[in-house]
Design brief:
Oligomer: single chain
Strand content: 35-45%
Radius of gyration: 15 Å
CATH architecture: 3-Layer(aba) Sandwich
Distance between the termini: 14 Å
Order of helices and strands: EHHEEEEHEHEEH
Structural class: alpha+beta
Shape: globular
CATH superfamily: Gcn5-related N-acetyltransferase (GNAT)
Largest sheet: 8 strands, mixed
């Protein structure tokens, strides 16, 4: 699907790994996953965990990605957004929202009842995005993050009984 500024969303492949590492390194506050970790997510090496990693690209350049983990062996199915990142030079264009919507659609299609995440308490833009998507605060982990030190705000959105929020509703056409 193509949206604003030609952003295309698709599942990650092995060819995306270098771009994912590049984005991670450009955001010091982001967990610094190795290329091996990204490759394992693409390869789905953990049999009891399902991971979905959508990437956003423009003209062949990976500019955003997300990582959603689902635990299908637990009932009701639970999801966790492990990562959501947009290259600094491509921020404030709604790309993070589009990636998040795609992950929520995937979770819903896999019968997830809810999706959880944690975010730095000082990441005001991310908190604003998550709250706009009906995530609610369910707790706080003091001094969870380092470099710089920060608390983690725990958030959750319930997917059951919620109006479908398909990726199309999050697209902003030029």
């Amino acid at each position: 699907m193509t949206g604003r500024l030609g952003l295309q969303i698709r599942p990650a492949t092995f060819d995306d790994v270098d771009g994912l590492v590049r984005i991670s390194k450009s955001i010091p506050e982001l967990p610094q996953w190795s290329s091996l970790m990204f490759r394992q997510i693409v390869e789905q090496v953990t049999p009891d965990v399902l991971r979905f990693m959508p990437v956003g690209e423009i003209a062949g350049e990976t500019v955003a990605f997300g990582v959603l983990t689902l635990l299908p062996g637990i009932r009701p199915v639970q999801g966790e957004v492990e990562n959501l990142a947009v290259s600094p030079e491509w921020r404030c264009r709604g790309f993070g929202k589009v990636i998040l919507l795609r992950m929520l659609d995937e979770a819903r299609s896999r019968a997830a009842a809810s999706v959880h995440l944690e975010v730095r308490s000082r990441n005001v833009a991310a908190l604003r995005l998550y709250h706009s998507m009906d995530f609610v605060s369910i707790g706080r982990r003091r001094d969870y993050y380092a470099n710089p030190a920060d608390d983690a705000v725990l958030l959750r959105v319930h997917l059951t009984g919620r109006q479908e929020a398909s990726i199309a509703s999050g697209m902003i056409e030029d």
